[in-house]
Amino acid sequence: MRLTPLRLATRLVAMLLLLAGAASAEVRIKDIAMFEGVRENQLVGYGLVVGLNGTGDRLRNSPFTEKSIKGMLERLGVGNLTDDELKTANTAAVMVTAMLPPFARRGSTIDVVVSSLGDASSLRGGTLVVTPLTGADGEVYAVAQGPIAVAGFAAQGLNASIVEGVPTVARIENGATVENEIGFRLSELTSLRIALRNPDFTTAVRIAEAINAKLGGRRAAALDPSTVEIDIFDKANIPGLMADVENLTVQPDTPAKVVIDARSGTIVIGANVRIDQIAVSQGGLTVIVKEEMKVSQPEPISIGGTTVVVPDTTVVVDEKETKFTILEGDVSLQRLVDGLNAIGLGATETISILQAIKAAGALHADLEII
Fold first, then answer.
1. pTM of full prediction above 0.85
2. Which of residues 160 and 228 earns the better pLDDT score?
3. What are phi and psi of 263, to 5 degrees?
């Protein structure tokens, strides 16, 4: 069955309603918050990928690659190379990034992402040379090396070329070894702090109440919209306390919001959105101008006749019938969507209607356009 734009919009809205209903259900604390201090850390490094099949950096356009190759070869005992002697096209300068997980121990491995820095056309088939990875404090926390895996590819001939994916970005699974640990001990904490990913006073209070109901007493308290603090009585069992807390379920609260992506025509309406009673009408005039170029030739036997190009223009006016629909005040999300669908709107028209309702002061929600 072929879906009309109205049916497609109705089905998409129905899916959004299901998602809105699911958002109001109870979720685990670990899915909406994290323990303060237990987080990942970004690592970055600069290195070289070798072994490329002529798809590396052109040294004339990437002087930093040339200097890096010279420096690497000098450390390996090969020195005094001139610019004319260094003409390799099998090497590329890259930036190497990784995420150091919390409590990563010395000798464990982490994944790394390798991204081309110069004008290399592809990193396929290359091998990353030993690359130290440093943190924001300048200390080396891991060392990366190994063959890289590229998802995309690039091929070209004399008159045509094709590129699939991004062949200048690659990954190395377990490609870095942790060499330095971040000093963080749970036993040194006097209290646990939970940081909400989406700060909200109501959600923070509900988390504190759920923890107190589980542990007993008043051990947890909401400090602000994004932080809940828990007192620690038994330092020998902090991991067990964290496991008990993160698996508790609460019902998070969210503000009323309408999010619009005007580029793709995506509209997401929160479950708490309310409007005052208004009357909505949508209509417009569509003018289609079609212009074709035709060739006019002279008669078979004529003097001074020439072939000319004559434009042929067709103008069609399509006037859409307008309808008024009354949206009652303090309606639910379902009735709001039903009222908009009753007008027979597409995504673009719905965006304009919502913006107009907000401008009229009848939409009681944040309107965010991304």
1. no
2. 228
3. -70, -40
